Amino acid sequence: MTVPPASSSPGRASRLAAVRARTAAAVAALAVTGAAAVAVTVTTAPPAAAEPGTVVVSESFSSGSLPAGWNAVDGTWKVQNGRLYGTSANSGENNKITFGRHLNDFRLEATMRFESVSAATRWASLGIDVPASGATPWWIATMRSGTTAANGLEFAQRTTGNAWVVTNTASAPYAAGTGRDVRVAVEVHGNQARWIFDGREAMRTSSLQRSANGVQALFVNDATVSYDDVTVTELPPNGYIRPAGSPFTVIAHRGASAAAPENTLVAQEIARRGGADWIENDVQPSRDGVPFVLHDGTVDRTTDGTGNIRNLTAAQLKALDAGSWFGPHYVGERVPTLAEQLADLRTRGGNLLLEIKGRHTRDEVATIVKVIRDQQMTGRVFIQSFEVDALKYSYEIAPELPLGLLRGSLDADPVAISKELHLTAYNPDGNALLARPEIVAPLHAAGVAVMAWTIDSAGLWQRLERIGVDGVITNRPAELVGWNAALLQRPDTSPTVAITSPVDGARLDRAQSPVLAVAATNADTVTVTLDGTTTTVGRELDLTTLAAGRHTITAEVTGPAGTATTTSTFTVTASQASLGYLILTSGAKPGALTAMSTHVAHGQYAQLATYVERQAGKLVPADVARVIAADARTLARP
């Protein structure tokens, strides 16, 4: 992908596709045998010991000072009023504070607030992979105060040459502005990450270049920003299961095969430019054992040659034209080796869902794995196959590689075979899956993702989204990327509920009569309880009948998109005025009213309690007598 040269700020920076000019030369220099590795230094992060759910960092800044282990690299960082404040003096300073530890799979989240900015283009960031010293290179997930701009949110790298490489941009649904708390998060799995703005995914990337020891960080640029409730949680390594509210993983079938000759580097490039998360291609060996990217058993359909791929040498395969059959402007495209394809993905961005096509011996699978390892792509390749033996060999040789089982028809027990084959994903024909959608939930419960093939219509995408499918293999990746974007823009239909009266924490006396009020959206039913007993919205609460002390209201709403629950507490207080109100409205006999009023006027609460208890059911109605006596005894306590 060709992009402008990197500029001096994230908003004008180039995209990852322009990574290092030496890439093209390196790819061209690949040996036809696929055995030679590109002379490019790429650091691959080894997976951290996975302890899913472990909270590595949880900081609310309540101590009044910088937490232990937090390294204020540059800029001004201080803790006050229960928040961390970072100040950067100008736009040329990317000031940072580092913390945490190196993790391959994690979620970093924080509440961020711009206190002041010099312009809406200024920004603050969550550091994804940053040396503890703050030295370059590092990766960040950026938020501008003007988050509704086209580049209001970004994934970006600061290179060792102090240039910006911006890989992805997006706009948020509203502007962060100043003085407004925004809850943001980034979920990272190896070279992939999701940018989550106030609970909803805004964009994703598959272009991170991870280090072996980078930690987490917070950044501020030409602004003062405060942070609160910073947490880092380790995630399980399988990041392929789609989080709630996130769109599909887009998998380009044989590259962008509806727009370019399949299984070629140009099809891969078009899919990458179109925003595909993964490229899906097929691999088979030449007669001399070199893994090539080709779907059919013969070269007849997709090249100007004839014959079985396994009967042709690597040199013969490289001489074929693999583009002219598709269109005249693709004349001269070649059948790529697996090594060439991986080098292109590694240096220009992207991940590979690699189908081992047809029967392979263990040695042939071992050759494929060797090429993946030689190209330093074990963290970015996902192997799938219809052939069970190929998956078994892959697991024996390279247990670190995720595996997917392709199926035209569904197994009787997909979970059982997933466990048997150590699958990360179960990848069925999409139409077969739609006939048995109930298999998705148990696969997810077993930690297995579901990727459906090969689906090209929006109507089927919608049906697959509704049943919880994680990824879609499609010939039309750019269209699915656009469909995903529209999905993210749809209104949130999740139900919400809030108790608006009595307000949470209210302290009320007996003379008040609050009306129970609930605000709900996207809800068909509303259920409310007071101290566990069902009540009704709009009811006037009679505080003369409630015991003094705390009371809890719970509201639950249910709508088409689920259920939401909230609670609120209020306190009924005992006071001289409340006692007076209880007595005057008690319905007691005149003589009793006089006696009780006299005790209250003189502060004789113990005597009042004794008198009322004696007259309960006689001169004073029993129910209200109990409440008066209880309040009187509360006030009588020293």
Work out the oligomeric state of the chains in this entry.
single chain
**Number of discrete helical segments:** 15
Distance between the termini: 79 Å
Taken from the alpha-carbon principal axes, the silhouette is: elongated
The computed structural class is alpha/beta
How much of the sequence lies in strands comes to 25-35%
Tell me the total number of β-strands: 31
CA-atom Rg in angstroms: 32 Å
Rounded mean pLDDT score: 89
Largest sheet: 8 strands, antiparallel
Detail the poorly predicted runs: 1-50
Q: Considering DSSP H and I runs of 4 or more, what fraction of the residues is helical?
A: 10-25%
Task: Write a structural description.
This protein is α/β, with parallel strands linked by helices and 638 residues long. It is 22% helix and 30% strand. The protein contains 15 helices and 31 strands. Strands 1, 3, 4, 6, 11, 12, 13 and 15 form an eight-stranded antiparallel sheet that branches. An eight-stranded parallel β-barrel has the order 16-17-19-20-21-22-23-24, surrounded by five helices. A hairpin with a 2-residue loop joins strand 11 and strand 12. Helix 5 (362-374) packs across helix 6 (388-397). The radius of gyration is 32 Å and the shape is elongated. Residues 1-50 have low confidence and may be disordered.
